[in-house]
Amino acid sequence: MPTRDPHETEAPVAVVTGGNRGIGREICRQLAAEGYRVVLTARDKAKAEAAAAELGVASFPFDVTGDPAPLAEYLTDAYGHVDALVNNAAILYDTWQRAITADLDVVREAAETNLYGPWRLTQALLPLLRRSAHPRVVNVSSESGSLAGMGGGTPAYSASKAGLNALTRMLAAELRGEGVLVNAVCPGWVATDMGGAGGRPVAQGAASVTWAVRLPDGGPSGGFFRDGKPVPW
Ligand code: NAP
After folding, report:
1. Do residues 169 and 178 touch, judged by C-beta distance below 8 A?
2. Number of structural domains, the chain?
3. 2 domain-assigned
């Protein structure tokens, strides 16, 4: 948990997208166990409520391709600020596509969720993050978005995550003077619906993400990490 003023008595508020299953759900569980007041968001209201009830956290229905204003309004009324935003929701690990023949509608669809979604939500929640004493933005990326290791394949997913990494750098630079730490994290290959069988446990993937939520003041910003260690851009 970020270093906090001893006079601050309220637990920090963390907002997570795509929290109903997979890594997002586990991020919510871990943050709640660490004392955060978690707002689990998911595009399906019933799934958001069910997962939140199981974890004992708050929920709000939110599709990252939609208007973030109702979520921002809810957070303003319920908490007055946000300490951590975890942009986790993502789609379209398009193993069936190649860049040379990719369906650009699919590429566009991936970007809408994986890049413009986090971008739009971060913009919308920035006024609330600015009211936090220790604001953190964590973009859940992937080594698939690393230009250093970029090969062929998964073009929609890889391009969207490369874009998310670029967004991370820009936001970090623009917010550096305000103490908002913005980082991209890779959870590693994780056994979820997206990752498939054989990946590492969800708890390990989520821990790679929550590390960046708990960064102390003065911690890194504008970085790309897995398990707390830098990943090449
Ligand atoms: P997952 O099991 O497929 O879960 C994806 C989550 O995103 C679901 O909760 C899904 O909700 C949600 N989502 C999709 N579109 C959404 C939208 N428009 N609005 C709101 N929520 C939406 O994936 P995961 O493996 O947990 O992945 C989580 C993050 O880790 C992603 O950013 C992914 O790119 C990244 N990652 C995963 C791996 C891996 O090996 N698993 C590796 C590298 C990076 P629904 O249930 O409604 O579909």
Report:
1. no
2. 1
3. no
Tens of each residue's pLDDT in the chain, 233 residues: 444 444 456 899 999 999 999 999 999 999 999 999 999 999 999 999 999 999 999 999 999 999 999 999 999 999 999 999 999 999 999 999 999 999 999 999 999 999 999 999 999 999 999 999 999 999 999 999 999 989 999 999 999 999 999 999 999 999 999 999 999 999 999 999 999 999 999 999 999 999 999 999 999 999 999 999 999 99
Q: Which of 36, 79, 93, 157 is catalytic?
A: 157
pTM of the model: 0.97
Give the DSSP H or E segment for 140: strand 136-140
Q: 74 catalytic, yes or no?
A: no
Q: What is the DSSP letter of 189?
A: S
Ligand 1 atom, smallest distance to 93 CA: 34
* Domain enclosing residue 19, as ranges: 7-230
Distance CA 74, CA 49 (A): 15
The rounded Å distance from CA 23 to ligand 1 centre is 7
Which of 30, 43, 86, 164 to mutate to test ligand 1, by most ligand atoms within 8 A of the CB atom?
Answer: 43
